[in-house]
Specification:
This protein has about 850 residues and is α/β, with parallel strands linked by helices. It is built from 37 helices and 16 strands. Helix 7 runs antiparallel to helix 23.
């Protein structure tokens, strides 16, 4: 080894005057490949630093790309995945910028295919999808069918990994239709297709499982894997173990990397767990750990310092947690899983990629919450409740929290070129992703799509480099834990109580925190309770649903109030509620706090009568919102859509009434364009949009209409707005696709991404007339009280108490759609003071008059 290192050093630094730079780079590459050790890597890195400053010609860049790819391959083989990714990314960027226009190099096989595999391994599924589709396009362009099939295999595997099985089947069929696919490639595609069909409960046509069961010792790896998959689907775990043991022998003969071998042990451990054999499970897991951590001692739990970004660790620690009889020990293992998961996902740059990663953490979060609930029930110490709150906070609306954090940092340092560049790149990234998402419905050519994908890859790489520099410069810590002291201070200031929910697969967890006490509740999500939640939401599908059966509604509204444990905060006036899952669609104000047989809506004990409720996506965002503004100005947008099928008749009345109540600038009719709105938006504290909204679908994001064109959540993600309040007087502005952990990707969420401190949004298609009445009352109350949260509550009470409105029109359908996101703000104390002084003077005068009447002069 010493002789090899001497040779390497000589080649790197010796005879420097007699060689061209290109020759030196090739010789250093050859020397590294000859030795391939940690010491050789250190020497190579020094050479790379030296070479990089000297590169000028295309030939030199070409040689340098080759060197980087050899280094990345070495890192990949040695499980240094994140370092390998950086090497492949750097090589790809240099190749595109400096080499591709002159030399044609097999960048697909040597760079893009391994890069896609690595992205998938670390959980950056959107980056993996983009890079695989990139090299499939390149292969189609170059008519390289081998690479096309390789792309089909990797892309279908990716979709299978993230549970998009129909897409996996479609891509597998694409690969199978390529005539030049080899027998081995076809078998891989058939296996992927059959597995996804089995998981979709479709008949797997590839192979007869009965034949494999009888003769599995003579079958190929692909055939055995399918037989194993079907045995698992049928829950025949004993048979699955028999098949797996034969598979294990075949696989270990062809696999060499520690990562691949460890995953065989993990899969075997999963089988033993299903067979309820914990000791065998533990033995397999320890073998897997030994492969990944050579110096691992099986007598102790690994330390965080022993771990690195490797997804095999997550499988190991999750299984270790499942077999623990001590709940505290199980939580420690889950925390190790969370730690590795965070390492893997910290460099994911796209919003969609982060959402997928967030979803994968939900199951582990629920298991941990269940353990903490058990520990809290057996302890007088509230630490387990607060630990549960920390866990909910860590992985709830984390994308929104990170987006707002970046925009706030830019506001603090508006001239920092790094932050400006980062924001521009993030905006461009979302725009390109939006274009690619809509690609099936546009006229993009294959070359245009390829160009967009290459741009996206370049942006992704640049954002990672920027993040590393910015994190060091500003010492940002996105994983910082929730500050409980600040939370308590904020709750005391607002005289409020926190009600935080976590909507899991098996249970709904509720954490209540006030200045004096905490509570930790578990609500089983059995069929009955799940039906109760969904039934209540369906009452607001149409204006007649409640009025058709008022008695049933009152029963269900009170039952849900109890089910959600809101009776535990019945004495609390101000509630900050953090909903989750389907709870995002519940109009809490329309719940009933006591039983009633009354059919007169004005006399019903609605939640809104006893509580001022404000909603938020995340506890940290609630804590940070300390804005108070006593004087407001409104920018109103009223397209009206006159003389069209979309005409909003009462929108004009709404505009006139707002103008009477508060200082306003109104963009009416043809003036209500998107460009006019964006030009003026940052001049006003309140943005009011009275228009049409849509909740979006799989291909189109949620949108809100202007006179000329709509604005979508994707566009809002890239804007920098800073209003105190956005009022979305439109249909379904709080409705959209639910992303587990992140919340609802509605148009309201889009304005939150853009920087709005508070958003007043609707949960269903609201009545034009009742909306106008409620909004008018809202601004009147806001002008008097200067409090947004108070005005929201009072506008609903004004509507309920309005004697001119008939009983049927007082159904909660007409007034409870509007939900306020943000935090509390105080009622104008000056107004209250003058009211008290005025009342006191009246009382004094009255007392004096009574005294005089009784006693004379």
């Amino acid at each position: 080894m010493k002789n090899h290192l001497l040779v390497l050093c000589f080649l790197c630094f010796g005879n420097v005057f007699s060689q061209t730079l290109e020759d030196k780079i090739y010789e250093v590459t050859d020397a590294f490949n000859l030795t391939k050790s940690t010491e050789a890597l250190t020497t190579l890195n020094n050479s790379i630093t030296s070479f990089e400053t000297q590169l000028t010609t295309t030939d030199e860049y070409f040689a340098f790309v080759n060197l980087l790819l050899n280094k990345a391959h070495y890192l990949k083989v040695n499980n240094k995945n994140t370092q390998a990714i950086k090497g492949y990314e750097k090589a790809y960027n240099i190749y595109n910028d400096k080499v591709a226009s002159v030399y044609k190099y097999n960048i697909v096989d040597y760079c893009l295919i391994p890069l896609g595999v690595l992205y998938n391994k670390i959980g950056d599924h959107t980056a993996a999808e983009n890079i695989i589709k990139t090299y499939i396009s390149l292969a189609e362009k170059n008519k390289n069918n081998t690479q096309r099939v390789a792309g089909a295999i990797n892309l279908s595997r990716l979709y299978q990994t993230i549970g998009r099985h129909q897409l996996a089947i479609d891509i597998a069929n694409y690969g199978l239709n390529i005539k030049q696919a080899s027998t081995l490639q076809k078998n891989k595609l058939k296996l992927i297709k059959s597995r996804s069909e089995a998981r979709l409960n479709k008949k797997a046509k590839f192979i007869n499982n009965g034949d494999i069961v009888l003769n599995f010792k003579t079958q190929s790896i692909e055939a055995l894997e399918l037989a194993y998959e079907i045995a698992i689907q049928k829950k025949d775990y004993a048979l699955a173990l028999k098949i797996f043991k034969n598979l294990k022998g075949l696989k270990t003969n062809v696999l060499s990397s520690a990562n691949s071998l460890s995953k065989i042990y993990i899969e075997e451990a999963q089988l033993y767990l299903l067979l309820k054999q914990p000791e065998d499970t533990k033995k397999c897991l320890k073998s897997a750990l030994k492969l990944l951590i050579p110096n691992y001692s099986s007598k102790a739990m690994p330390l965080e310092t022993d771990l690195y970004p490797e997804n095999a660790f997550i499988g190991i620690f999750d299984l270790f947690a499942e077999i623990q009889t001590n709940p505290k020990k199980a939580i420690e293992y889950y925390n190790l899983s969370f730690y590795v998961s965070d390492l893997l996902t910290e460099n994911i740059t796209s919003q969609e990629g982060k959402l997928i990663a967030l979803n994968e953490k939900r199951k582990r979060s629920e298991e941990s919450l269940n353990l903490l609930y058990y520990l809290q029930n057996n302890s007088d110490d509230t630490k387990y409740t607060l630990e549960a709150l920390q866990l909910c906070e860590r992985y709830k609306a984390s994308v929104l929290k990170e987006t707002i954090s970046k925009k706030n940092l830019l506001k603090e340092h508006p001239k920092d070129s790094l932050l400006i560049t980062q924001q521009k790149l993030l905006n461009n990234q979302e725009q390109i992703i939006n274009k690619l998402t809509r690609a099936p419905f546009t006229n993009f050519t294959q070359d245009q799509k390829l160009e967009l994908r290459e741009q996206l890859s370049s942006i992704n790489i640049e954002l990672k480099d920027l993040k590393s520099i910015i994190d060091k410069k500003y010492a940002t810590n996105p994983k910082a834990s929730l500050d409980i002291l600040k939370l308590n201070t904020k709750l005391i200031k607002d005289q409020s109580t926190l009600v935080n929910y976590f909507y899991g697969k098996n249970a709904l967890y509720q954490i209540i925190v006030s200045d004096k006490a905490t509570a930790f509740n578990k609500i089983l999500l059995n069929d009955l309770n799940t039906k109760a939640i969904k039934t209540f939401i369906k009452y607001f599908d149409s204006p007649s649903a409640i009025n058709n059966n008022i008695s049933k509604y009152t029963t269900d509204a009170y039952s849900l109030y109890k089910l959600l444990k809101l009776n535990e905060v019945k004495d609390k006036k101000n509630l900050i509620i953090i909903p989750d899952g389907f709870l995002n669609f519940i109009p809490f104000d329309a719940l009933l706090t006591t039983k009633t047989k009354n059919k007169t809506f004005g006399n019903m004990p609605f939640f809104v009568k006893s509580h001022t409720a404000v909603f938020n996506s995340n506890v940290s965002l609630y804590i940070k919102d300390n804005s108070t503004k006593l004087k407001h100005s409104v920018l109103g947008v009223f397209p009206v859509f006159k003389n069209t099928s979309q005409e909003l008749t009462y929108s004009i009345d709404e505009a006139k009434n707002i103008k009477k109540e508060i200082e306003s600038t109104l963009l009416m009719h043809d003036q209500a364009t998107k460009s006019n709105f964006l030009k003026q938006a940052n001049k006003y504290s309140i943005l009011h949009l009275s228009t049409h909204g849509t909740s979006g679908d799989f291909f189109e994001p949620a949108q809100i209409a202007f006179m000329d064109q709509p604005i979508s959540t994707t566009e809002l993600y890239g804007l920098n707005l800073n209003p105190e309040l956005v009022v979305l007087s439109a249909c379904e502005t709080g409705v959209g696709e639910i992303k587990r952990g992140e919340g609802v990707l509605s148009i309201a969420r889009g304005f939150q991404y853009a920087g709005a401190k508070r958003v007043l949004y609707s949960l269903w298609q609201i009545s034009d007339l009742s909306t106008s009445q409620i909004i008018t009352s809202f601004y009147k109350q806001l002008d008097n009280s200067k409090s947004i949260s108070y005005a929201n509550q009072q506008s609903k009470l004004d509507y309920i108490n309005n004697e001119d409105i008939k009983n049927l029109k007082k159904s909660p359908y007409y007034w409870s759609a509007f939900t306020l996101y943000g935090s509390f703000d105080k009622v104008n104390e000056t107004n209250n003071l003058w009211l008290i002084i005025g009342l006191s003077l009246v009382i004094i005068v009255l007392l004096l008059w009574l005294f005089k009447r009784k006693n004379g002069k």
